[in-house]
Write a structure and sequence with these properties.
Elements: H1 2-18, E1 24-28, H2 35-51, E2 55-59, H3 66-73, E3 81-86, H4 87-96, E4 108-117, E5 119-123, H5 132-141, E6 146-150, H6 156-168, E7 172-176, H7 180-188, E8 194-198, H8 199-207, E9 212-216, E10 243-250, H9 255-269, H10 272-279, E11 284-286, H11 291-312
Parallel strand pairs: 1-2, 1-3, 6-7, 6-8
Antiparallel strand pairs: 3-10, 4-10, 4-11, 5-8, 5-9
Helix pairs in contact: 1-9, 4-11, 6-11
Length: about 325
């Protein structure tokens, strides 16, 4: 009996280590050069050695991550094509688009959430409000006179801004830009007064005094910005500013591939130097969640974002 159990474990261990058997493709749903692309290339470089196979990154931006997701959904379900995307694909798009070319729930296997990141509400220094209560008071005194930038209808900044308007009972004017890289520069230039920014993007302008931070998302303050209060502690926990990066495989991919990818990626996330230098110091909260934990989180996150989309009135552009 004991020998049979040992042999079974040996077979399972061999099956896990058998993946991959050919080059692996990581399809990134965003253009080259951004934070998610940089992380994908770092992972690819670290995984190619232990996997004994080339790991290549393919950028497939467009249609709010739909092009990349559709390509992976239709790829061979053998574990060798991985989707690297954000919460937009699974938590927001299903509520934003009347029809998608794939089923976000049925056509993918969540492998792991890599990182969670919170955005902060930032303002041009000239705005006569430096706290959330001052901002709300000013907006009530002068309804429609304060505007905020997002990178499109249904984007995280748009949903957060509209939820803040809804919960605080204020009128802010939404100004959509055509890309994530344009919103913070628009505030710096004084084109708009507010936007939501990730820590990595906003830290430089913040330290240089070109913007000021009002509040940040999350359950606790960022260790990089301990002076910036959270929306939750200020009485607005419904204002969710978070985003996340995650890995997915096509539905039907073998369990040994799912397990191997999760195990090896989590090991990278847990490397002390990588964790500190590449993640924590850039404002990312390392996760490495199991496939089951990730799937559960997505269900909850999708429900929350569904409410935000309805309140915002966002429509796919």
């Amino acid at each position: 009996m004991r020998l049979a159990a040992i042999l079974t474990l040996m077979v399972l261990a061999f099956r896990v280590e058998a993946f991959p058997t050919k080059p692996v493709r990581i399809v990134v749903a965003y253009p080259a050069g951004g934070g998610i692309d940089v992380m994908a290339r770092q992972l690819a470089g670290k995984l190619s050695g232990p996997w004994g196979q080339p790991v290549v990154v393919e950028n497939k931006p467009g249609a709010n991550t739909i092009l990349a997701a559709d390509a992976v959904a239709k790829a061979a379900p053998d574990g060798h094509t991985i989707l690297f995307t954000t919460d937009a694909t699974f938590s927001i798009n299903p509520h934003l688009y009347a029809k998608l070319p794939y089923d976000a729930q049925r056509d993918f296997i969540p492998v792991t959430m890599l990182v969670l990141l919170q955005q902060m509400l930032v303002a041009h220094p000239s705005l006569p409000a430096s706290t959330l209560s001052e901002l709300i008071s000013l907006a009530k005194q002068k309804p429609g006179s304060i505007n905020y930038a997002s990178y499109g209808s249904g984007s995280q900044p748009h949903l957060a801004g509209e939820m803040l308007k809804h919960k605080a009972g204020i009128d802010l004017v939404h100004v959509p830009y055509k890309g994530i890289s344009l919103a913070v520069p628009a505030v710096i230039a004084g084109e708009v007064q507010l936007t939501f920014s990730g820590i990595a993007t906003g830290m430089g302008p913040l330290k240089g005094g070109r913007i000021k931070a009002i509040a940040i998302g999350g359950k606790s303050r960022s260790p990089l910005l301990p002076q910036v209060p959270t929306f939750a502690e200020l009485g607005y926990p419904e204002v969710e500013t978070h985003a996340w990066f995650g890995l997915f495989l096509p539905a039907g991919s073998p369990g040994d591939a799912v397990s191997r990818i999760h195990k090896d990626v989590k090991q990278i996330l847990d490397e002390p130097e990588f964790r500190q230098k590449q993640l924590v110091e850039r404002g990312y909260e390392p996760m490495g969640s199991s496939p089951e934990e990730f799937a559960s989180y997505i269900r909850s996150d999708s429900e929350s974002r569904s409410r935000a989309v309805k309140i915002s009135g966002a429509k796919a552009e």
